[in-house]
Amino acid sequence: xxxxxxLYSCSEKATYGCKVKxxxxxxxxxxxxxxxxxxxxxxxxxxxxxxxxxPLYEIxxxxxxxxxLHFIKFENTYIETCLDFIKDHLVNTETKVIKATGGxxxxxxxxxxxxxGLKVDKEDVMTCLIKGCNFVLxxxxxxxxxxxxxxxTEFRFQTNHPNIFPYLLVxxxxxxxxxxxxxxxxxxxxxxxxxxxxxFWGLGALLTKTKKFDxxxxxxxxxxxxxxxxxxxxxxxxxxxxxGLSGNLIASSFGxxxxxxxxxxxxxxxxxxxxxxxxxxxxxxxxxAKLHNLDKIYFGGFFIRGHPVTMRTITYSINFFxxxxxxxxxxxxEGYLGAIGAFLKGAEQDNPNQYxxxxxxxxxxxxMSTSPDVFPMQRTRSGTFDMFEMDxxxxxLVNLPLLKDPSTYIPDTVDLTDDAMARKYWLTCFEEALDxxxxxAAASQPDSIxxxxxxxxxxxxxxNKLQTLRQQxxxxxxxxxxxxxxxxxxxxxxxxxxxxxxxVKQKENGIALKCFQSVIESLDSLGWEERQFAxxxxxxxxxxxxxxxxxVSDVLESEPQFGFEEAKSKLQERPWLEDSYSQWLERLxxxxxxxxxxxxxxxxxxxxxxxxxxxxxELLSRGTEVILACNSGPALNDVTYSESLIVTERxxxxxxxxxxxxxxxxxxxxxxxxxxxxxxxxRLDKGLAVxxxxxxxxxxxxxxxxxxxxxxxxxxxxxxxxxxxxxxxxWLADRLGxxxxxxxxxxEVPCK
Length: 752
Known about the structure:
Layout lengths: L1 E8 L4 E8 L3 E19 L13 E19 L3 H10 L8 E5 L3 H12 L2 E4 L2 H15 L4 E4 L7 E3 L9 E6 L3 E6 L5 E7 L3 H12 L4 H10 L7 E2 H5 L13 E3 L13 H26 L4 E5 L7 H14 L5 E5 L5 H10 L10 E3 L27 E6 L4 E2 L21 H24 L7 H21 L9 H14 L7 H23 L3 H15 L7 H9 L5 H7 L7 E2 L1 H10 L5 E5 L5 H16 L3 E6 L10 H14 L1 H8 L3 E5 L12 E2 H9 L4 E5 L1 H6 L9 E7 L3 H6 L7 E6 L4
Parallel strand pairs: 1-3, 2-5, 5-6, 9-14, 14-15, 19-26, 20-21, 20-24, 21-22, 24-25
Antiparallel strand pairs: 1-2, 3-4, 4-17, 7-8, 7-15, 9-10, 10-11, 12-13, 16-17, 18-23, 25-26
Helix pairs in contact: 1-2, 3-9, 4-7, 5-7, 7-8, 10-11, 11-12, 13-18, 13-19, 14-16, 14-18, 19-20
């Protein structure tokens, strides 16, 4: 019996939901509020004080409560343990209802009501399934994948399309249901078949005497269907050229059993049966997709359930019958769709769809996980999640309106899932840096008695994640430098290290502010053309100060006096590795001022204060409005939105250009909605997107190795863009054809 339970709870009310159907697994979905630490900064009141030796701002660590969705899988042996688990997480509430869906819910109805003291309220199976499917398609990047058994990378993840509708959902359970989904609430059952997973299981049991579904699939994976099936070449002696049919095409499933006087193996019969049913489903799905003019077909149900052998046969069938025009697509979390849908139905009064959600890598097992610490059982079958968590984000996320084509936008420059050499290097790189990160985390909380213990737990957890990714690089979708960085940040947060670099940033911001006026005076003394180059060089030099790059952190720790001028001397001389500075200068000379520039800032300290702000000041002087976007939450030594407010206030007190721009709202500070050292332009704060439209932004500036090289190096925009970075990793520099501290200066104008 396959039970999916969705639970929603908060301090005042609670609604619960479950989906039950035939199978062998219990899947629990529950909502919780998670208390964790967050770093806050607050400006000191410096009025009447000598601020020379005072910190720039106060840093505090506060408790914050956020919402989290949990999904855990159990064997049905542990159904009572599962219900005990739910009971332990209940709160005293007025509402006592559990939403149930699926025919098998009747089996557990009495047990649920007795154990939990809840009334079971049934919900429609298909409604829950569609709601769950829409939810994961909208909220989880790399949710969708195509399966390619014979390639180096079995899982080929797809780019999230901004508009998920319409699509075809083929749910293969006991039978087959084919559903056309047009909008969030509009869908219809357009067809199906009685020949589905139950047929494979039932006939397979009769043919092989094997009663367990997974064991039947295991037999099929070892079989050779050509020993049982009659092929085209068996009928015609080769290919049927007139109709263009390959000789290896199945002409008749089980056809050889009518003429061969022998016993067939269980493995061969199981494989023949699997092909017969998969081909039937594939052809049916293709015909319905063609009839309704749909090009997206998602497959789910217990017949799929992450099994490589079923995904492979369905993929082959779809490719054959569509002549390669349609791709069979699968979902990483398809086993939880009903549970998610039941949760959404139960929580409708709180409208969970109004929020954006993000996967918490620290609490998720990953595809084909073998993690034994999920619950009282170890997985015996690969291809599905043991544990999966999603955090509710504070603000809704949307595409940057200036993306040229959001449907083809890929944030990451290198796919480590595909590139084995790059994968090996970066995994080793993150392993070697781990001890230093753990040490930095512990040192950031000197007054905490358990900081070292928590830092060690972080180190061990992230190390285990890296080992999983060595064996299963597709565990969380496409593996990239960004996902490795984000996973590390998630693990740090899991053990209450919200901002290990807070004191470093505080100190560097204070030092850089003292140098701001002298840097501005020096720039103002230059002629126009000389000043433009000095501004760009300052922007690049500021970008050197990246504690996430080992080559830089080693220098900063061993040479405390390393500063702005020393960073300039490290830069590659022109011509740079990527150099379109001359075109940029020509644009400034000959073209009109830009209407509005959007700048994605990178590091705190010298980077934002001595690099970015002089550049901002020059744009403002040209008559260009500026939107300065900073991270919503901390990551490495990247500047956060709250820190940027304090820094900007101090700069405005020193500089009339900045002060005037703030007062007249020509300089606007916004948050990106991100807490990552990299940048995904398809998941940005909705308020930022609105502002970009309102101000008619026509220039985007992205700086930093994480935002402009690891991500967005190939991003195509509708407007002019500048991508600037200093390469602070020797391996990456060599891969790009340069040396460490090589410069990337990419000025791009969209094709008209």
